[in-house]
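Input record (Table S2, row 249):
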Amino acid sequence: MATRKRSVARSLDEYKRKRDFEKTAEPEGGSDSRRRKRGLRFVVQKHAASHLHFDFRLELDGVMKSWAVPKGPSYDPAARRLAMEVEDHPIEYNTFEGTIPKGQYGGGTVMLWDRGTYEPEGGGGEDALREGYERGDLKIVLNGKRLKGGWVLVRMRRPGERAQWLLIKHRDAYAHPTFDVVAEVQTSVATGRTMEEIAGGRSRVWQSNRAAGDGRGAAVARKRNRASAAAHRRTAAPKRAKKKTTTRR
Ligand code: MN
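Output record (manganese (II) ion complex):
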């Protein structure tokens, strides 16, 4: 759809302006703006830039809406995690794990910390999400490996050009006041590697979509995914509590 393609391109202007694609292996974007039938994607990347933070990204209108969350997500419904909105990222960023060269924008190590699909909590598809995003009250359900259940992003104010939001866990069966998921889960959801292994690793920059040309990249990725799933079952999202709480925020 031409109109959609143009609006995606516009949406990625800032992303492209900030990066030199001759120097960074981050994706340039623009090759994956198709609508997907099976759920909208979300991804969380752990990013050791000048300050360690977690990049929380939600697919919407052909791009990944993005927030930098300094402390990362929390399963404690009482924890309100600051989430600073940043520029939209291309969908292809969802498979990016590796190192951004020093001196480049966001220079440092990027780990794929979680990924999966998400949906608006009350149904209504992408329209409901767009509405919630614009209203500054985005209630979502995450279906990831590490993050599950209901969450909300609430916009606070616009101090500069970027909005500050809060990321808060809903009180549901997955809520867990003492499970520190950010401390517990120290490995990539895609490759099982630690930050140190990614930083100094054999495959310094690994991108499943680009490596898929000869089919080998995708096979390696699948193999790694299976290995990582097995290795990290213990530290995955907490099991549903037996006693269900019905309190909502
Ligand atoms: Mn970042």
